[in-house]
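User: Fold this; tokens only.

Assistant: Input:
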Amino acid sequence: TRHVDRRSTEQNSRLWALHGLAAEHVGCSAADMHEEMLAEHFGYYEFKLPSGDIKRVPLKRSSMRDKKEFAAYMEFVEIFYISKLGVFLP
């Protein structure tokens, strides 16, 4: 099998710092923002919970992305947070 470099610890730390800032701004958890951004970027499927609420489940996870794919995802997240929420890291 071919070795694929997965996302770096630095990339992952930056992502979660961004999710934390966005979560504070919106009023939810960083994990909620993470799920939302995965669904926005990679697509999602929906299902109805017994409560009647609709749950969105991302089609892909960030943990399995290689460094290049993860960088593209990070760029998407950063642009989304800046343009929609005015949230960014220096």
